[in-house]
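Sample intake sheet
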Amino acid sequence: MTTEKTQPGNRRSENKPGKSGFGKKRTEPDLSFERALASGRADAREGKSASAAETAAINADQAADIVIGVDEVGRGSPAGPVMLGACAIGREMIFSKEKIAEGIADSKLLTERRREELFEILKQRVPAYAVGQSDNREIDNMGISHCMGLAALRAIAEAEKILIEKNLLPAPGFVFESGGCCEFAYSGESVVIFVRKPVIAVILDGPTDYISPVQMQLDVPEMPYPVRVYTRVKADMTCASVASASVIAKVTRDRHMVSLAGSSPRFEPYQWQKNKGYGSAAHREAIAKYGPCEYHRKSWNLTRSKR
């Protein structure tokens, strides 16, 4: 697994959002960076503007066949899991003129109703999506950074498996040799086809790669294909695949926390149906009064008297 850092292009995404979720000058996330990765462009790999010669020098071995946008939700929540959404798109969608979904944006800029609407659209539009999670007990035992990487790998592995089931990726067991020769057995006969080993690029929101340090650990899921990780600041505001992943993760986690809130009267004081496990005033007051429950991250020292 390789990691490369990139910076956002000359967009106006840094402008503060207006009351409606977008300022007048805010640019909607698009597929520009995904196209750069799928083209193997030098500016995508190096995170800077490429010269005409560099842009023309497309490296076919580096061009991504699948791009997976990844984003997290619940990192700072004192209760519940951290979840990582993965939105996988192929070259057909990347190079088409159609948007992944009209009005897609970072989930934090959308109303709950709009997130729910977009989630249903994304489920029908994208080739594969998945959500990986790491619960509060894992977070207490291994730390939030490790668990974010673990949850991300769980989501990516699941997305790859879905792509394989849909025949959008070759099934595991193919032997890829130099020159692109792939030999495998089918119906008792040896068949040789020429195919390049798929290149899968992951766009990770933010400056830090928390995926690669985890991938050699024993507790990670089996990955059908390795990935190349590209960290990108404000990717959730500039890359449509990452913005889509943020919506998928946010809706999934919100539903999970609402379900937990209604699963027992013991959880009513924490008001998870409203705060989704985040540290609202009411949530903090309930922790101070009743103490943390089995879904709280107790290693975070949520109260002075209880750890």
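Comment: The first helix runs from residue 32 to 39. Residues 9-24, 46-57, 180-194 have pLDDT under 50 and may be disordered.
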